[in-house]
Protein 1
Amino acid sequence: MNMQRTAQELAALCGAELSGDPERVVRGTSSLESAGPEHVSFFGHTRYGKELAQTRAGVLVVPRALQAPGVDATLLRCERPNEAFARIFEAFGRLPARPGPAVHPTAIVGRDVELGEGVSIGAYCVLGDGARLGAHAVLHPHVVVGARARVGEHSELRPFVTLYDGVSIGARCLVHSGAVIGADGFGFDPIVGRAGLERWDKVPHGGTVEIGDEVEIGANSCVDRARFEVTRVGDGAKLDNLVHVAHNVQVGRNVLLIAQVGIAGSTRIGDGAVLAGQVGVNTHIEIGAGARVAPGAKVWNSIEGGRDYGGYWAMPRGEWLRNQAHMNKLSALAERVRALEKQLEALAAHPRGAQSGNAADGGSSPQQEPA
Amino acid sequence: MNMQRTAQELAALCGAELSGDPERVVRGTSSLESAGPEHVSFFGHTRYGKELAQTRAGVLVVPRALQAPGVDATLLRCERPNEAFARIFEAFGRLPARPGPAVHPTAIVGRDVELGEGVSIGAYCVLGDGARLGAHAVLHPHVVVGARARVGEHSELRPFVTLYDGVSIGARCLVHSGAVIGADGFGFDPIVGRAGLERWDKVPHGGTVEIGDEVEIGANSCVDRARFEVTRVGDGAKLDNLVHVAHNVQVGRNVLLIAQVGIAGSTRIGDGAVLAGQVGVNTHIEIGAGARVAPGAKVWNSIEGGRDYGGYWAMPRGEWLRNQAHMNKLSALAERVRALEKQLEALAAHPRGAQSGNAADGGSSPQQEPA
Amino acid sequence: MNMQRTAQELAALCGAELSGDPERVVRGTSSLESAGPEHVSFFGHTRYGKELAQTRAGVLVVPRALQAPGVDATLLRCERPNEAFARIFEAFGRLPARPGPAVHPTAIVGRDVELGEGVSIGAYCVLGDGARLGAHAVLHPHVVVGARARVGEHSELRPFVTLYDGVSIGARCLVHSGAVIGADGFGFDPIVGRAGLERWDKVPHGGTVEIGDEVEIGANSCVDRARFEVTRVGDGAKLDNLVHVAHNVQVGRNVLLIAQVGIAGSTRIGDGAVLAGQVGVNTHIEIGAGARVAPGAKVWNSIEGGRDYGGYWAMPRGEWLRNQAHMNKLSALAERVRALEKQLEALAAHPRGAQSGNAADGGSSPQQEPA
């Protein structure tokens, strides 16, 4: 797209305080590293200080209080730089336009459905009886909202999202394509006869799912309904793609569940906990508030909040890394044990004078172990 | 919903034998722990004996033979308590009503499709030529049934399920949203030229998938078609969400595959095996009937049936846990080896009399290792 | 289906050079092991030499140069045996027919959409404004193509695929059901107040996804859009089911990502690398070209190309397997260390003469450790 904007126009767009040349013209967005004078870029974190010092960007969105003495770019100082940059992406056509308020003629809307002001319902959506959409909620095409399910105001559901009957999504949520909210919890009782297991008896799940406000749910993630009560995802929690949250789980406020995390049934994840990609969490345990779990860790027992954890048998991070370091050279440790055994055998055979010969073969010296 | 039911009404609903006050009135369902006198609750397992003793529930669904001397509630004794409680959930509007028999006018039905008596086909379903639905099968809105695919009687497919051409689902199955049955197996032959790998040559997959009777498949799970013959999921098997079953795999009867399990190609899972969440199973191996594999385990080699397994290199459970316990304090073991080496070095340097000094520093004593 | 074909007809169908009886009649396809004289089967790899020697198949598709002295079947020698066999599967109705060129009347096509020659757009597809489909592209029913998204010529998208706005799919790709291309990258900045974490601030993602030519993407896999620039999947790469590719990742040419692999943000996967099922790869690292990573491995640090790796802390395969072998009998190693400690304690207590007693109890002898 052939677009250009002055720094001043962009400042107006995102409510920024401008410092530098207001007439600078930019034609697109770019990262700090790749930007040229024709780009507007973004600096949020001190950890990118080096990139900031070297950037060639013409215009920069930065936190309001930033001191950036050596930077040549025109600065747009913002209270909420991420939100500001979303406006700038939009100005350059880089974010999808939010569809206007309308109900597409192909949408099928059940009886007793309540639609808030300004809702947008895309093509081929299906809303069951008694569903409720809050004001300005957006259903992209091909969303299924079950009977009596509820979507809060300003929430946005991408194509092929399924809300099963009766589940509830809070306000200002974003649910990506293919997410499934409210499928049956996985519960089966064994029916055992004389010859052993005969079949699995389905445990009916009459509970529901409640997703709080400002929650984001990634593509193809699944949150199952509770057996009697509520599987809950707290306000401000963010779930990445392909995450599994089982029945009765309680996910606290502001929890991050990164891609492919799996939480087994009835477990509680405390507020602000961060579970990295592919973490697995056992059933009926508790992750303390603010705990941070490294990628791929498997959490077997409840862990306290406010600390870092990792490992196939998750433990405090420092302990895990010490153990892991030894695991990573375990064959060397085993060789050292073998060498000790030989030395002691030699000692037993020749109780005196044999040791120096053993020491001379060097096999037991940790200085010589493989790196 | 403003509902109330007497114990007697509920007993009639689920064919229970009532013991206690038939006039007790309840207004909803709840778990044993949370129930009050206005609730009907459920007791199935002796492992919830404590909750049973303490429950305040007014009415309880229980197994027919239960003795519950101290319990005040009116008891509804049932042959199949889970099925009974499903009826009770329905009575309180907690389970989705099964849609009535009808073909929605927006459904697109190909040529030579056979529809059994009483089928229900929801909005925007698409059925390919020659598809067959058994009597009373239910397709919720937005289900795609490929050409010549088959759905058995009383089976139910939730929104956004895809059945690829020619696959077959048995009777009384439940397939949750987003499941994909019959996508191509993942097979590619390397085409290697002078400069190494040039491209991957797709191996065509002309086989199919057959899902048995009474199978449940979780949301967004995938079962791939076989290369020549059949990827099979046996009668009574239950798959949780986000499970992957590769081409040619044979899943036995009554197998449980819990969330995010992955089974590599051509592997056989024996009847009644239970694979917990995030388990991975290697290609071309066999899991014996009734084997139970702990969460997150990786199964590299065939394992015998009837036993429990676990670990990153799956082995019998007891062995795994013993090894795991040592892994969890491996740095302590390494320190003990270092202490032994020092002692032996001292012995070698001073063959007599030095040992007591080493022993006194205590470093090698297992009693002092970190917990 | 009641079908039969002569060897000669099949040879014509797939451009093969026939050797043997051209009048042999077959009625279906089968694997080498299961085939009878009435089947056409396939031999591609020397690793199936034994099955080849024993097969009873009537007709065999084989590589052009194959010598197969003892084989009785009529041979169809082909330059590209896999492609040839795809034609044969089609002849027996075992592969889905490609839908003919047409735009289904229920498809909703936005403004300024460009449709190449011979495209096929299935029922209930939705194409946003400015979308482009190359010649002979196939959208099966229920595909959503976002505004300005692009699908290359001859590419095929299965039901319930979502292309978010602006993403691009190359030519001759195959995308299976439920795959989601271009959902927001998972990026959130912590907003910390006096009482700790207050909320996560969404980092807007204005970049896109570019999928190369001849890429296959499995069912329910997800490739997220970049923050500023492009998440890229190179030409000829193949992704299996339930794979997660995070924002800014660069997947090289001819990479294989097997089922349930997860790649964290900004990581680079070199050309021709093969990541087996359930592998996890850390953020901001690099997998060298042609690296091969064993199932379930977790890759924490960059690894060099051209080698094999494995393990929970991925390392070169040989090293991993040596370490793993010791991990698998770690409790035995710990017992040996305990035995050494006892011997040394005895030595310390009785500096002379005690050793032989210790040696006699055998506890420290590695010959006696559990297998």
Protein 2
Amino acid sequence: MTQHALQAARRLAPRFAARAAEHDRDGSFPVEDFRDLREAGLFGLMVPTALGGAGATFAEYAAVATELARGNGATALVFNMHASVTGALGAVTEDLAEALGVPDEALAARDRLLTAAAQGAWYAVAMSERGAGARLSQLSTSYEPVDGGWHLKGSKTFCSGAGHADGYLVAARSAADQSVVSQFLVPAGEGLTVEPTWDSLGMRATSSHDLHLDVTVPADRLLGGVEGLALVIAQLMPHWLVASYAAVYVGVARAAVDAAAEHLNARNLAHLPAVRSRLGRADAAVAAAQLVVAEAARRVDEAPGDAETNRWVWRAKLLAGTTAADVAASVLEAAGTSATRRGHPLERLYRDARCGSLHPATSDVCADWLGVAALGGDPDRDATVPRW
Amino acid sequence: MTQHALQAARRLAPRFAARAAEHDRDGSFPVEDFRDLREAGLFGLMVPTALGGAGATFAEYAAVATELARGNGATALVFNMHASVTGALGAVTEDLAEALGVPDEALAARDRLLTAAAQGAWYAVAMSERGAGARLSQLSTSYEPVDGGWHLKGSKTFCSGAGHADGYLVAARSAADQSVVSQFLVPAGEGLTVEPTWDSLGMRATSSHDLHLDVTVPADRLLGGVEGLALVIAQLMPHWLVASYAAVYVGVARAAVDAAAEHLNARNLAHLPAVRSRLGRADAAVAAAQLVVAEAARRVDEAPGDAETNRWVWRAKLLAGTTAADVAASVLEAAGTSATRRGHPLERLYRDARCGSLHPATSDVCADWLGVAALGGDPDRDATVPRW
Amino acid sequence: MTQHALQAARRLAPRFAARAAEHDRDGSFPVEDFRDLREAGLFGLMVPTALGGAGATFAEYAAVATELARGNGATALVFNMHASVTGALGAVTEDLAEALGVPDEALAARDRLLTAAAQGAWYAVAMSERGAGARLSQLSTSYEPVDGGWHLKGSKTFCSGAGHADGYLVAARSAADQSVVSQFLVPAGEGLTVEPTWDSLGMRATSSHDLHLDVTVPADRLLGGVEGLALVIAQLMPHWLVASYAAVYVGVARAAVDAAAEHLNARNLAHLPAVRSRLGRADAAVAAAQLVVAEAARRVDEAPGDAETNRWVWRAKLLAGTTAADVAASVLEAAGTSATRRGHPLERLYRDARCGSLHPATSDVCADWLGVAALGGDPDRDATVPRW
Amino acid sequence: MTQHALQAARRLAPRFAARAAEHDRDGSFPVEDFRDLREAGLFGLMVPTALGGAGATFAEYAAVATELARGNGATALVFNMHASVTGALGAVTEDLAEALGVPDEALAARDRLLTAAAQGAWYAVAMSERGAGARLSQLSTSYEPVDGGWHLKGSKTFCSGAGHADGYLVAARSAADQSVVSQFLVPAGEGLTVEPTWDSLGMRATSSHDLHLDVTVPADRLLGGVEGLALVIAQLMPHWLVASYAAVYVGVARAAVDAAAEHLNARNLAHLPAVRSRLGRADAAVAAAQLVVAEAARRVDEAPGDAETNRWVWRAKLLAGTTAADVAASVLEAAGTSATRRGHPLERLYRDARCGSLHPATSDVCADWLGVAALGGDPDRDATVPRW
């Protein structure tokens, strides 16, 4: 079934690529890409098979993400948020649920969300806030119990897919007790307002706008069914974000090599030694980064959270980010001025590729953590000033 | 007087910088920057003092170009074309004119053009054509003698400042004899049509659009007064283009370091070791590139066209281009995601900086020529396939 | 059984490391390392199980080579030659033998050589000649039939392990017909003279001296039993050389990271941010190179000689060579002056690591071939001037 | 006169180069190089003309050092120590001497030392100690007044030229008051013992051995004539060490480019595109580093100790060190395996070149300081953990 997903991703990528220039230019959301993803059943990729999904492993997901990103990195980044939500929800086993005191009806609610995803719904993440970043302890969005559910009020930033998702994973603090942070799956609709703030160097089509919430949700939209579980779910997600960013940027880097090759062949420049040297070194670097991402993903499946797994996740993030930026810059130089015209794939990929190292954990942070680990230290304890 | 020019450039740069985001966004020409340049008398920078100009050396020009580029690289690039035209015209000595058979009235016409520049006129260059690039031997724009002057017909591309200059240096071939290539200084006005084709990754404000010509010019607008001198004038210009591109990109690179420092201080991130390391290495690289450009320019003044001068010109072009791109990429990474928002100086500088290596002679071509010279060969004879 | 080999390699590596400084200093052959290899049964690693060997795949071999190289890269390089000989001999299937017209007694002779290896013999390669390099078509060593066998006469260079091996794979041309090139497995003993010419920057303990031959060997020492098969066997070996060089240099690179970590911890310098950054980036680069080597080796097993397999082999060679040199240079800088003292592991590793890119195919050649392939061309047909 | 010195350096360099391989191999001191330096009058380079010297500026010295290093970097490094001593002694003006309370007889003694240098004496520096490094506050070498002078006792390390100099600049602490650190110019002879500890990756011919002192010196060998002036003199020297190291490594880098060009031409490999690209980029990098060193030196003459001067000194150190290592590694790769044979200039230069970044202030430290300065901070106050 997941082989099917990979084939679907490969089939869709050229369609995404054909639309990418327009969405990059306008900063518009790739609505048709998401329709394609829905029709291909990819929203159920991380949903357990028992609930109608494909039950993909993280490694399978990473491979799919890379293929999608070869079409449009921005589409793959937004899809990544959905995969993170469904993947983290699906990762809550019955044992874990019992240990956390999750009531049965909460598991049932969780299953309804996953089933909906398998049937075509997709979810975005509304976690970050201005000033707080993604640190749960500093959120200002709050919630309180009301008749028939919960009322949430606050503002989120960097919400990829804002205004287009069927639901939003929202973290908020209890108005009654500031130390309690909970997560809700807020359905799209009234009470949510998108403020179009996203206007970025690259990955422009993610529509990572601000999202203002003043909304009441049914009781069963509190994830886990009991308040205060946000940190637990958050801890299930980090490898998702870090390692899956990496998968996306490998796709972007490979797309850059392919676009450069096409451009150079069309202009009969493939015989130039400097061109060959640039493409050859770029090809090797991308191939290496792809293997590292695959290895990290494999280990996430086998031993999530292990110290050695984390090292591979950081290696993947570091290498994917730096490789994408370096490769795109080099092959653009090989391709020449004619490839810098807006609308040319390399022009967009050069901008998209620069963003990978900047997602948390940044390349410099990953290098620091890896250095601590290589020196036998514990990155959790010994890291230099972290950036996130 | 040229010290005055340098001070003027430093005074204007912040004003250019304040307008740069808008022109970058819209791809609009920095009209007010050029008004400022006119009012500061900088259009006369390369005009001999006897004709009312500042009589600057090439080294002095390079220093001015770098300062202007710290404000807006695109403005500096367009100014560079004007400086190239006036510099090359001014470089035709009486001895050279006599050797070429330039009649006295042509020298008088040349002096009028330079005097006009000293009084506030500026000239653009309309040399390249689709397909032909800048190779004079393959131009399709043609001219023929008509009553009262010359008629020119054809289309040019990459004409920086198209639609805004007071005159255009145009190369064309004689309709009567295809082997004769001449240059004209075509005044702005009827007969020139700008087709807005320029929409680039970086240096967006240069308005390097297509220019269509179907125009009659007075007899004295044939440069040199006799047909067929285009190659001679062209040979006076190359160091202009190559070395002065380099001066511009040093300014862009320095602007990136400065913008990153400002951004990082504003966000209290100056204490991060990785940030310091990136800025320190960037600072050193830019300082080195600036010295190389100054040395190349100094040698262009002392011994233009000498083999050793040419090596310095290529070194300057190579290092300025690669340094600008590398430095902008690194300091943007130091600055983080918040600096990738459109309108942020670093977002623009990252794109502008990538263009330097791509101007002819590209970095790869310069490296090849320098390698041939380091190996004791003659780049004119032994170079690998050239890109231009 | 091959898991046993990997464990043996890991057990031996520290013993090799303890002896490495002495052999590096003197350029002496690591005789005790080879005794250890014999005792661990590793000379039979590539010998089919039916003949008493471990029947390792190429992927298994590559893993072993990397582990050995973590102890001493030079030892691993010499072992690599033996593995190449036994691996290529073992790869001649009965079908291939039949197609080539290999008589049964030649297969029996081959089996004796492999059985001897499984029992503790090891073989070196004497292929290159001054002037000819490794090009079979330009060899000057010749052979002719004599009573009871063949007489060989000539001089070989770069013969790793010269004077220590139990046999030498020697290529020679027929005195009767210069176009016929055959290979012999010449036993150690009279008729072979070692001229100690090897005195190199790095990998000093390989004893890759000159070997002079004036020797008669029994008839069954002609490999394949018929003359003229040298090219066929040679074609079975290239991935051996290229890909297994790569495995060795990954081990060298990892050893450098480990030695730097030990040195820095001993000097309490692990807290320095620049040190961490260098080790972190080095760690990631080595991990990536190791995965690429493993992937290349896996594909060599699955589809030897395929175009895609070859690309992976070149990627492995390119990345292992450049990574080893870059990593060793960077971590030596992290470790500081105290690590540049002769006898310090990093001092040796810095020199050893530089050699990887220089083995054929060099990094620049691999980059060219990879570039041709990325551009859709055929490296066999379209490559720029090759270096070998 | 100093132009004469530069010419002498250029004349001597090939002679040094011809002897370099032998001294590198044996770690022997280049006695004949120093005889050449004496005969050329170069020991008086930094001695004021009034005392018979050449009265060179620091910029002139830097140019000489680079030329000497093109012959043998190790010779240039040892010469650098002598130039530092004579340069610092010569830099003590009468005003400064008066402000420090230096008695007239001490100035007379100083003049005698400088006059001796002009006549052919040369001085080494014995400052560092195991454990203390070059930190004056942690020295364990002590002195006490005795009949007819001072008695010094202790051990020094990294004393370049140990056993060959005519005198040694020695820092020691007063036995009576540990807080008082003084400097002495100890004449060669009895009481000094050289322990041959120097056996390094590169710069092997500096003979930077340990020096044990148990010696009595005349009263006038206390520099400055009053105790406790060591820190003052030390503060006059840092730019000497940092900036003049840089000058040496530029020479080493240029020598590497030249040696590679000679090697490649001899082997008819100059036509290979990858070779040209490597040499071209190397040539540009070395040219840039040389200009930065010259600029730093010029500013040291004009405004020693200024914040902006210091930035140039750090830029020079950073770029010379990194450029030498990078360039030597790249051109060795261009030259190929045949250049890795011991005795080949590139083999030695590759090792010598790696040492530049490791001399204090290391490249990483310079980058940190430059980053602090670029961010508007004060490196003296804000630097991250320093390495020295």
